[in-house]
Design a protein that fits this description.
The complex is a heterodimer of chains A (about 525) and B (about 375). Chain A is an alpha/beta fold. Chain A folds into four domains: about 120 residues, Nucleotidyltransferase, domain 5 (2-Layer Sandwich), CATH 3.30.420; about 120 residues, Rossmann fold (3-Layer(aba) Sandwich), CATH 3.40.50; about 160 residues, 2-Layer Sandwich (Nucleotidyltransferase, domain 5), CATH 3.30.420; about 80 residues. Helix content of chain A is about 30%, strand content about 25%. In chain A, α1 packs parallel to α7, α9 packs across α13 and α11 crosses α12. The radius of gyration of chain A is 25 Å and the shape is globular. With about 375 residues, chain B is an alpha+beta fold. Chain B folds into two domains: about 200 residues, CV3147-like domain (CV3147-like fold, 3-Layer(aba) Sandwich), CATH 3.40.1610.10; about 140 residues, CV3147-like, CATH 2.40.390. Helix content of chain B is about 35%, strand content about 25%. Chain B contains twelve helices and 18 strands. In chain B, the strands form four sheets. Chain B has a seven-stranded antiparallel sheet with strand order 16-15-14-13-12-18-17. In chain B, strands 3, 4, 7, 8, 9 and 10 form a six-stranded mixed sheet that branches. The longest helix of chain B has 18 residues. Chain B starts with a strand and ends with a helix. The chains are: A alpha/beta (about 525), B alpha+beta (about 375). At the A-B interface, β22 of A face α2, α3 and β12 of B.
């Protein structure tokens, strides 16, 4: 028997789960996220392995979904590297400088070192001007010692990446060993968003390195020596740990994706609303065909606009620890919360703060702590407070729904006891057992992917044939990466015309599939 | 007269991108250019067409070319000023004000950036009431006003002045210059007197863009879907809801051209929408039948937020609502249909107003 170990690091909890080949949960634990993150991961791995009582060498895959990178950006961590931004395209582009609409503190955190170099390409692959290598060398010499990494962005590099590649070669000469991100490797047409992603990526190398090292060490220490290691991506797929160290920005927001996929998997519902109620906030998302519905807005990470595909999530200030109070005859719940101090401050635990959890216990929706401690709460008051909680939930569910037709509602998370009684506009309310580890399970059941990024000429082959061929190659790459062929699906197709090659286009396709050992009957839906 | 501040510019950019009907360029790039200009030079004064003296010279400022190029090759910033000042100098007359030539994400913003940098007022009027792909597709052309002399400038420092025999030649020559400049050029065109502007301009278009933008923004802030209010405000029709399943596009002859295909959702499940575009959306067919056509406005909106989507931002999997709006009455005249109707763009069909087609489909 082979096993998988899935770990999810969230803002409050670090969860771990071990599943077998049929993706049945063998063991699961929930621990607190620690300030340094890594200690929490160690604890979770140690405890889940103790519970599972399996041969540790039988764990063949270990997946980590982590907020390390997101947190570093959102908190403007001092672990962010100072990035030298080299934008190649002068005299074009000068009317909008790099990072112009970023919050000041994140600009400061990544160093704000911006340089322009003459060069870049037109849409048809002609040069705007040849790359000015002398100018580039002087820019790089100027930055040597002042920056930790580089982000190199050239105009129209998705069409012709030669200036970025040449600049990288020169940078390696002048700043030996420096890590750098070439924008054409991580995103497509749209200079500002691609540039933002490249700068953030270049600032995250150190965070990624310590995360990967911590994960490796934790597994080795626990005796898990035969596992392939992966990090989770925002689109519900896995990256090898080496790949993730090159492209750490792709780990951003994998938590919500894992939560939604895990909830869907646990409840065997492929199309549903997912409500994840935590201690302080609740997230509402939609799962469609087993994948999160994507936000079609440009996604901001710590105030920085990017064009990554992210799950469409609404967060509301409602959780198990939300403070309940009455002001001028109006009951209000949250947005403030006692958070992780709930075990001391909530009334059911002997504290003196009235929380949403106390209301649920008073109404018999849950049996937590000492229910005699909330017996004194007036029944009518508790019912009114619960009405307020349900009104908040109903309002946001309604907002997320696309149509009036009722859909199933899956409720997960530590605060799921709050969602009792009537929920409007849903066909059923599903509260899966073990819902507390939906995120870690989402990591354990994440998919592997295969990509194609190639230029096709339409001289001897039609566009449709080229796209079909690219899809086939992407699917084959997913299989090569470990996916089972029968589960492979195409999830992304991007065709960029290249006028300068006559009738030709750059075609990017992404395919995903399940790792082997999965009994098809165990999949959701 | 009023001052345009950041909020006004945000709303105008959002509303104008709806009137851009798929074209008009990336509203983000246009907006960031306008915002960084007012940050440096101070807010812009906006005046009504009736405030412009009859003899005064007004020059519209615009970007010409493929919008996708602009989101990648962002302007230098000086090329607007060069194109604009070159035309004033050529005419030997003091420029009183500038204005947009069309409504769209970029071309509603470029004149704001120019007005800020040169300290000129912006006139609340344009020559289209929407966006169109070619230079002669303006109400001024329908009324015999010459596009030339016109000026063009690129970011490399090249300036071109055109004197041409008519406005169709202005389009042809300027288009090939634009391609040579890298499929994106800044232009000064259709120099007007105050009197001509008052007679032939589409007045109040900047304010109208702002109203549309505000409607979308406020509905989103309230957590409501703006579609109902938008159809009320614009007299438009919601014709389709669906998911993008293919986008085939190519940059040819200085335009983004192509076709996007959508699969129906909700009450449109089982139906299929095709939208053809040449920078702007030109034709919408539902299950093979025409549902809306140029010069009426064919607008694709993000299904969740009702934020307008330009043709170059359409992606596989994107969910949309199709909103079609009747165009300005100037375009429904015989000369208007000849200039911008379906036959001009090579479609073998007569123009049918969107409200007539909506009525046939039982939607009106």
């Amino acid at each position: 028997m082979n096993y998988r170990l899935g770990i999810d690091v969230g803002g409050t909890n670090t969860d771990a789960v071990i599943v077998d080949e049929q993706l049945q949960i063998i063991a699961s634990v929930k621990t607190h996220t620690t300030r340094d993150v890594t200690t929490g991961i160690n604890q979770a791995i140690t405890r889940v392995l103790e519970d599972a009582k399996i041969d540790r060498k039988a764990i063949k895959y270990a997946m980590l979904g982590t907020t390390h990178c997101t947190n570093a950006i959102v908190e403007r961590s001092d672990k962010l590297l100072k990035v030298g931004v080299v934008r190649i395209g002068k005299p074009a582009t000068l009317s909008i400088p790099p990072m112009v609409d970023w919050p000041d503190d994140i600009v400061k955190a990544v160093g704000g070192q911006v340089h322009y170099v003459t060069g870049g390409h037109e849409f048809d692959g002609q040069e705007i001007f040849p790359l000015d290598e002398e100018e580039l060398r002087s820019v790089l010499r100027n930055m040597a010692g002042k920056v930790d990494s580089l982000a190199i962005i050239s105009v129209f590099s998705p069409v012709d990446r030669s200036h970025e590649e040449r600049a990288a070669a020169i940078a390696r000469e002048i700043m030996p060993g420096i890590q750098m991100t070439l924008s054409s490797e991580i995103a497509s047409i749209g200079l500002l968003e691609r540039e933002n992603a490249a700068i953030l990526n270049a600032s995250l190398y150190e965070v990624a390195r310590t995360t990967a090292q911590g994960f490796r060490d934790a597994l080795a220490e626990a005796g898990v020596t035969d596992a392939l290691m992966y990090l989770c991506q925002n689109d519900g797929t896995l990256m090898s740990i080496d790949y993730a160290m090159q492209y750490p920005i792709l780990t951003i927001a994998c938590g919500p994706t894992n939560s939604i996929r895990g909830a869907s998997f646990l409840s065997r519902r492929e199309n549903a609303i997912v409500l994840d109620i935590g201690g302080t906030t609740s997230d509402i998302g939609i799962v469609q065909q087993g994948f999160p519905r994507e936000s079609s807005l440009a996604v901001e990470i710590g105030g920085v606009r990017t064009n990554f595909r992210m799950p469409d999530i609404i967060s509301i200030g409602l959780g198990g620890g939300s403070v309940v109070r009455e002001e001028d005859g109006q009951i209000r719940v949250g947005p403030d919360s006692v958070g992780y101090r709930i075990v001391e401050e909530a009334m059911v635990f002997g504290g003196s703060t009235l929380t949403a959890t106390d209301i649920a216990v008073r109404l018999g929706l849950a049996d937590i702590g000492d229910k005699t401690k909330v017996a004194g709460i007036d029944q009518a008051f508790a019912e009114r407070a619960h009405r307020v909680i349900m009104d908040m939930i109903n309002e946001y569910i309604d907002r997320m729904k696309i149509s009036r037709d009722p859909m199933p509602l899956i409720v997960v998370g530590g605060g799921s006891i709050l969602a009792g009684g009537e929920v409007e506009g849903v066909s059923e309310v599903v509260k899966p057992v073990q819902s507390g580890v939906a995120n870690a399970l989402g990591a354990a059941v994440a998919l592997v992917s295969g990509q194609v990024d190639e230029v096709f000429s339409f001289e001897n082959i039609s566009r449709d044939e080229a796209v079909a061929q690219a899809k086939e190659t992407a699917a084959a790459n997913a299989v090569k990466a470990g996916a089972e062929r029968s589960t492979v699906e195409i999830v992304e197709v991007d065709v960029i015309p290249l006028a300068y090659l006559g009738n030709a286009a750059r075609i990017r396709v992404k395919a995903t599939g399940n790792l082997p050992g999965v009994n098809a009957g165990a999949q959701p839906g | 007269m009023r001052l345009l501040d950041q909020q006004a510019i945000d709303d105008i950019a959002l509303g104008a991108s709806l009137l851009g009907s798929g074209g008009g360029g990336d509203p983000l790039v246009g907006k960031l250019m306008a915002l960084s200009a007012i940050k440096t030079y101070g807010p812009v004064r906006m005046i009504d067409a009736s405030d412009v003296p009859d003899e005064a010279l007004v020059i519209p400022a615009a970007m010409m070319g493929a919008p996708m190029v602009l989101s990648e090759k962002i302007p230098n910033g000086q090329e607007f000023i060069r194109a604009f000042q070159a035309l004033g100098k050529y005419l030997g007359k003091e420029v009183y004000a500038t204005m947009p030539i069309e409504a769209g994400g970029v071309n509603s913003m470029v004149p704001i950036a120019v007005a800020a940098q040169l300290g000129l007022p912006l006139v609340d009027a344009d020559g289209m009431g929407r966006a169109f792909p070619e230079l002669q597709m303006v109400t001024f052309h329908l009324n015999g006003i010459s596009a030339s002399p016109m000026t063009m400038a690129d970011e490399k420092g090249n300036n071109v002045v055109l004197e041409v025999i008519n406005n169709v030649w202005a389009e042809r020559i300027a288009r090939s210059v634009t391609v040579t400049m890298g499929a994106s050029a800044m232009i000064g065109i259709y120099a007007l007197t105050g009197e001509q502007l008052k007679q032939h301009g589409i007045h109040g278009i900047v304010t109208y863009s702002e109203q549309i933008g505000r409607t979308i923004r406020e509905a989103r802030e309230e957590g409501e879907n703006p579609l109902v209010k938008l159809t009320e405000l614009t007299g438009g029709f919601r014709l389709f809801r669906g998911k993008t399943i293919d986008v085939d596009r190519v940059i040819r002859g200085g335009f983004n051209r192509g076709i996007a295909i959508f699969e129906g959702l909700d009450e449109f499940r089982g139906s299929r929408l095709e939208v053809e575009f040449q920078n702007e959306n030109l034709i919408a067919r539902i299950d093979g039948e025409y549902a809306a056509m140029t010069p009426d406005l064919i607008c694709l909106l993000d299904m969740e937020t009702s934020v307008p989507i330009t043709a170059d931002a359409l992606k596989y999997g994107r969910r949309i609502d199709l909103l079609a709006l009747p165009c300005h009455p100037s375009w429904r005249t015989e000369e208007g249909i000849r200039s911008v109707g379906p036959r001009y763009f090579g479609y073998d069909c007569d123009y049918v107003p969107v409200e007539t087609m909506a009525e046939r489909r039982g939607l009106a």
